[in-house]
């Protein structure tokens, strides 16, 4: 087991990447603190782990709120004695996020709050816990849009993921000598709720697929496997990385027909 005796906190564990990662980390021996704002899905995630012999705790937290972030970290230490892995993964993609002209200030602020401030707050309270544990791994979910612009705009989302990537690099540099690694996990387009609710016709899906060399969307469990590598000691010399798991989308100028 690759995460034996580790405690991992995962935000956005009620769906998609977070759900798959929570299940995988638990199968690899970690005690899991599953965090979400949606009690039903968050509790379902934990029930599935505990029913299959794993160890998990659900904590409700809105990751854009400082008090909630403080409490989720405190719950991890209170229940499992320590925190080794912090996966700041929860994020939103707002339906009214558009170009600069058409995106409202409210949508901009909400996106920055949930996608960027959350990572700051997770680290603000989580890094001291990792220090108390003698070190650990922080994984922040950014996106391929942190390094590529899209002509179908989601300006706030794109800016938010650029901020997560930049923040991750600096955190990595600052905490490297404390045995704390920080990496930005950058998924390509995935077949999860977050994206598929917008790509709701075959035409829209094809418009996106034409850019992906592999010719398909990624699956949440493929991102979970990358998170497992970054969480485990196997990645002991990996920090500050832009860890792209994207079917080649950022590598290609022209993709095969
Ligand atoms: P998802 O919508 O399937 O899951 C996100 C989870 O986060 C949900 O369970 C939701 O309830 C939770 N959440 C939302 N706001 C929250 C808040 N304020 N506090 C706590 N929990 C909250 O999404 P996903 O596809 O699994 O995405 C996970 C991460 O991956 C996000 O940061 C997203 O931006 C990023 N990402 C996704 C894609 C993609 O194509 N799906 C690509 C690149 C990056």
Order of helices and strands: EHEHEHEHEHEHHHE
**Stretches with pLDDT under 50, minimum 5 residues:** none
3D shape = globular
Output the radius of gyration. 17 Å
Number of strands: 7
Helix-strand makeup class:
alpha/beta
Bound molecules: nicotinamide-adenine-dinucleotide
How far is the first residue's CA from the last residue's CA? 41 Å
Sequence of strands across the biggest β-sheet? 3-2-1-4-5-6-7
Biggest sheet layout: 7 strands, parallel
Query: Percent of residues in helical segments?
Result: 40-55%
Task: Please state roughly what percent of the residues sit in beta strands, choosing from under 5%, 5-15%, 15-25%, 25-35%, 35-45% or over 45%.
Answer: 15-25%
Counted by DSSP, the helix tally is 8
Average pLDDT rating: 97
Characterise the protein shown here.
The chain is an alpha/beta fold and 257 residues long. The chain is 44% helix and 15% strand. The chain is built from 8 helices and 7 strands. It has helices at residues 16-27, 39-51, 66-80, 105-132, 155-175, 193-196, 202-209, 220-231, and strands spanning 7-11, 31-36, 55-60, 85-88, 136-141, 180-187, 242-245. The protein has a 7-stranded parallel beta sheet with strand order 3-2-1-4-5-6-7, with helices on both faces. Strand 4, helix 4 (105-132) and strand 5 form a beta-alpha-beta unit. Helix 3 runs parallel beside helix 4. It binds nicotinamide-adenine-dinucleotide. Residues 11-12, 14-18, 36-38, 41, 61-64, 89-92, 114, 141, 143, 187, 189-190, 192-195, 220 line the site of nicotinamide-adenine-dinucleotide (NAD). Nicotinamide-adenine-dinucleotide binds at residues 11-12, 14-18, 36-38, 41, 61-64, 89-92, 114, 141, 143, 187, 189-190, 192-195, 220.
